[in-house]
């Protein structure tokens, strides 16, 4: 009998063993949000990842275990004094505030304090681990629109991908941070272009295509954002076959984090609801991404990982 647990637990067992799983399901008590339940899994073991989530895993870490990844999970778990309620409203409010702060900083040319961005990314990672991607997407659609909605959808999808594919926790936070900041360059574009219901003119499209570079240049000069996130902001519209923008990069020139963000950005844009278009069903959006993968634009492994994450 395990008894009442009031401290973090690291589980490193064979989750394919029915006896092990039944023992955990029977013995693990209901846990406070402060009591992290960490599962060690192989990143390519989909069945173990799913089983760990079903058992209530707070974090997933990859085998072979690395002490810095475990320590990151312990440092990131909610504190006992944190409110026990659903963290989605808090994370949504913080996310909207950070997006407003970041875009205002770009418009006015003032330095961007990265501390609240990093804190919000961690809140969002915890919230999605708690309630799942569907609850996050529904909440965002009900409360936000336009560029804010898109950034929040991208961030949620990217975070869920990180959880679903057992990326190391620091990488999931990087993905969330990149999702929050990836479209900051749109702060300099007028809403009549951003929200235009019809086809953009060549001039308008040229203006839109400037946003990755403008966001990157601002963050590079006015913040302490890390190089992986900077690259994702600059390159998230690049394709593996060189047909993207702004630089026409090819596969070897596009960083792994950026490749993930690109797929999540495209997916979020398709499932996004605007006044002039209904959201595309998830299955159809994944089929579009699979077609793009077959044509060499995005990485098929990432599309497959996203498909498994959202369950289509």
From TrEMBL:
Hydrolase found in the keyword field: yes
PROSITE patterns: HD_GYP
Name of the top EC class for this enzyme: hydrolase
EC number annotated for this UniProt entry: 3.1.4.52
Occurrences of domain HD-GYP (ranges): 125-312
CDD domains: HDc
InterPro entries registered for this protein in UniProt: HD/PDEase_dom, HD_GYP_dom, HDIG_dom
Keyword vocabulary terms for this entry: Hydrolase
One Pfam match: HD_5
SUPFAM superfamilies on file: HD-domain/PDEase-like (SSF109604)
UniProt key word Ligase: no
GO MF annotations, alphabetized: cyclic-guanylate-specific phosphodiesterase activity
Top-level taxon: Bacteria
Classification via NCBIfam families: HDIG (TIGR00277)
The protein's name in its UniProt record: Cyclic di-GMP phosphodiesterase response regulator RpfG
Organism field: Methylobrevis pamukkalensis
Organism placement in taxonomy: Bacteria, Pseudomonadati, Pseudomonadota, Alphaproteobacteria, Hyphomicrobiales
């Amino acid at each position: 009998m395990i008894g009442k647990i009031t401290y973090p637990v690291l589980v490193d067992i064979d989750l394919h063993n029915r006896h092990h799983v039944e023992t955990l399901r029977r013995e693990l008590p209901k846990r406070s949000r402060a009591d992290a339940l960490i599962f060690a899994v192989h990143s390519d073991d989909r069945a173990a990842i799913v089983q760990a989530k079903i058992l209530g895993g707070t974090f997933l870490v990859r085998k072979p275990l690395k002490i810095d990844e475990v320590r990151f999970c312990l440092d990131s778990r909610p504190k006992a004094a944190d409110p026990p309620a659903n963290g989605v409203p808090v994370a949504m409010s913080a996310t909207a505030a950070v997006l407003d702060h970041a875009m205002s900083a770009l418009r006015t040319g003032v330095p961007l304090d990265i501390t609240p961005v990093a804190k919000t990314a961690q809140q969002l990672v915890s919230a999605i681990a708690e309630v799942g991607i569907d609850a996050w997407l529904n909440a965002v659609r009900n409360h936000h629109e336009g560029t804010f909605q898109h950034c929040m959808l991208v961030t949620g999808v990217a975070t869920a991908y990180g959880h679903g594919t057992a990326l190391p926790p620091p990488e999931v936070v990087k993905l969330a941070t990149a999702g929050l900041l990836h479209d900051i360059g749109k702060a300099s574009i007028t809403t009549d272009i951003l929200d235009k219901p019809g086809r953009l003119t060549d001039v308008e499209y040229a203006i839109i295509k400037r946003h990755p570079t403008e966001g990157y240049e601002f963050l590079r000069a006015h913040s302490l954002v890390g190089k992986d996130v900077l690259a994702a902001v600059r390159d998230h519209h690049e394709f593996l076959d060189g047909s993207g923008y702004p630089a026409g990069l090819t596969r070897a020139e596009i960083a792994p984090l950026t490749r993930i963000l690109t797929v999540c950005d495209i997916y979020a844009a398709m499932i996004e609801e605007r006044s002039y278009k209904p959201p595309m069903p998830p299955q159809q959006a994944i089929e579009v991404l699979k077609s793009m993968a077959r044509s060499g634009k995005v990485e098929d492994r990432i599309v497959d990982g996203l498909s498994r994450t959202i369950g289509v």
